[in-house]
Amino acid sequence: MTKATIGLTVTHRRYIPYSHAHYAGNLVDGAYVLGLFGDVATEVCIQADGDEGLFASYSDVQFLQPLRAGDVVEVKATISRVGNRSREIEFAATVVCRGRPDKSGSAAEVLAEPLQITRATGTVVIPAP
């Protein structure tokens, strides 16, 4: 029996280690955030349907700001549409803490206003029993 309901939200937070930086300025590639969206979508499917589900597609992805090593990023997935076996999910990635290597090697700060870095819409499918 499904518990999939519009508005069901799952949130994950993750520290981004400096070993994940791929570009100058300690930038982390956008694919890293999409991987986090996949992780949070899996939990949405488990919470809603008791199954890990299968990610079918993204209909929209917007990279708004960079993700940097030393950030703490929060990713949210919210069910926005429920079909027979499909679920449309709205994703958001927000930086809540940021490393400050300009101050010292381990300096960081909590951002006064979280910084939305990525948003997306995707569809997951729950396999037929």
UniProtKB/TrEMBL annotation:
Stored SUPFAM superfamilies: Thioesterase/thiol ester dehydrase-isomerase (SSF54637)
Listed Pfam families: 4HBT
Record flagged with keyword Metal-binding: no
Official protein name in the record: 3-aminobutyryl-CoA ammonia-lyase
Boundaries of every HotDog ACOT-type domain copy: 6-129
The organism's place on the tree of life at top rank: Bacteria
Keywords: Hydrolase
